[in-house]
Amino acid sequence: MNFITEKKVSSYRTRLLVLILITGSNINGQPRELTLGNAISMALQNNIEYKTYKLNVEQNKALKKSAFTIENTQIFYGSDKNNIAENGYPLNIIGVEQNFNFPTVYTAQYKVNNTAVSLSEMDLENHRLLLIKDVSKEYYEIGYLMNKEYFYKNLDSLYKGLIKEVDRKHKSGTAKNLDLLNVLAKHQQILLSLDHLGHDISIAYKRLMLLINDNSPIIIPGIEPAQLIVSNQPLRINPGVKYKRLATQMQEEQLKVEQNRLLPDITLSFYNGTNKFSGSENYPGYQIGISVPLFFSGQKSKIEAGKIAVSISKNEEEKYLRYLKLRREELMSEIRKLRESLNYFSTTGKKLSDEIVKGAKESYESQEIDLFQYVQSIENAIIIEMEHLDWLAKYNNVVLELNYLEM
User: Fold this and answer.
1) Helix extents (H) in 173-238
2) Does residue 33 contact residue 39 with C-beta atoms inside 8 Å?
3) Is residue 378 a contact partner of residue 355, using CB atoms and an 8 Å limit?
């Protein structure tokens, strides 16, 4: 039995079937192979949620200069009979008045807005990495399911041959009816597993298509099972930690804004007085004043609330860092356990599987065992291979969780 050839053929048929189910295209179309790198690039370009976070960055950039928003200018006109010009008539006054916050209020608010941009950019980076993780998980899930399907297709082929042999013996009276029923029942279990795998592959494809937001016909090439590499990045450069740190910084800067609002506002007025009678002249003038807060309780309440907000944010930052450390330890422990299982396969399981296949073939060809014993031996070898595949899939999922820890 040529396992490699069968794997390529069965995988290709499955991929085409999934392609038809998902895109509605026909076999004569030109689907393109999708590598993991291409899938990630497409997701970063097309994913709707990721685009929303990009727009959030642009929104905060647009709001950055709003820190220097100044109140509307007041234009006034009036007549004061107590203000008599040299020609003996009262002056008509026209002028403008502008109120300003104390200058440090604007600079403090600008820092808040600038940090808001940095915060949204870090949020975007978090979701970029989260999107990469999700795409990678779905991509590897499809590869895992297709590889598992390959093993079940081999079992299906073996049992089809065994059913023919047992049925022939049953008809000749050399095999019991129970033997045939057992083989048929086992084959039905295999067919049911294949049917479930077909549905799982289709669902995994749909999840991937949703992430990359592209409905063009695609095929995922065969993925050889391999262990992913663990990335041991320091927690201090974790994007989630950076985000929490920036959130605290923003609360501190917002507190400074409220503290600066205790400083007096500034008022500037420019005006001109004249009248329409003969001998009239222009009498320009200006006025500078400040608005001093006489009642501090309201603003002091905001400042106290701001201090509490800073403390809450610092506590959340510390809590998050402790959670990440614990979570990383849990994932590393899980990785060590799964490595033991994978090492068992590398040192013992793989050798045992190969020896079972080799011994079964030699014994069957020399007629030392019958087809039933041969199929049972090959099935045991395949089960070892599938267990390794299950361990590897679990291991890679945990590695992805660790490498993209709480993005």
Assistant:
1) 177-212
2) no
3) no
Residue 294 pLDDT: 81
Q: Identify whether the C-beta of residue 81 lies closer than 8 Å to the C-beta of residue 275.
A: no
Cβ neighbours for 289, distance < 8 A, ≥ 6 positions apart:
266, 267, 269
Q: Where are the domains of the chain?
A: 3-403
Dist CA 207 CA 139 (whole Å) = 10
Residue-wise pLDDT tens digits, 170-189: 888 887 888 889 889 999 99
**8, 92 Cβ separation under 8 angstroms:** no
Q: Using CA atoms, how far apart are residues 29 and 132, in angstroms rounded to an integer?
A: 29
| Nearest partner of 394 among 328, 315, 338, 337, judged by Cα | 338
Between CA 125 and CA 234 the distance in angstroms is: 17
**C-alpha to C-alpha distances, 180 to 175, 223, 344, nearest whole angstrom:** 8, 37, 36
Topology of 3-403 in CATH? Outer membrane efflux proteins (OEP) (1.20.1600)
Q: Is the pTM of this model over 0.85?
A: no
Mean pLDDT of the chain: 88
Q: Which residue has the higher pLDDT, 139 or 222?
A: 139
pLDDT for 21 equals: 42
Q: In which element (H, E) is residue 397 found?
A: helix 371-403
**Cβ neighbours for 230, distance < 8 A, ≥ 6 positions apart:** 335, 399, 402, 403
